[in-house]
Amino acid sequence: MTFDPIQDTEDAARRVRADGPDFVKVGLFDIDGVMRGKFMHRDKFLATLEKGFGFCDVVLGWDIDDQLYDNARITGWHTGFPDVRVRIVPETGRRIPFEDGCWLFIAEFADGAAAVCPRNVLRRTLARVEDAGFTARAGFEYEFFLFDETPASVRAKNYHGMTPVTPGNTGYSLLRQSTLSDLYREVFTVSEALGAILEGIHEEMGPGVVEAALAPASGVAVADRAALFRTFAKVVAQRHGAMATFMAKWDAAQAGQSGHLHLSLAPVGGGTNAFHDDDVPDGMTATMRHFIGGLQTWGPELAALFAPTVNSYRRLVPGMWAPTDMSWGIDNRTCAIRVIPGDAESLRIEFRAPGADANPYLAMAATLAAGMEGIARKTAPDDPISGDAYAAPQPPERHLPRTLEDAAARFAQSEVALRWFGDAFVEHFAATRDWEVRQFRKHVTDWELARYFELI
Question: Which terminus of the chain is less hemmed in, N or C, by CB atoms within 10 Å?
Answer without folding.
Answer: C
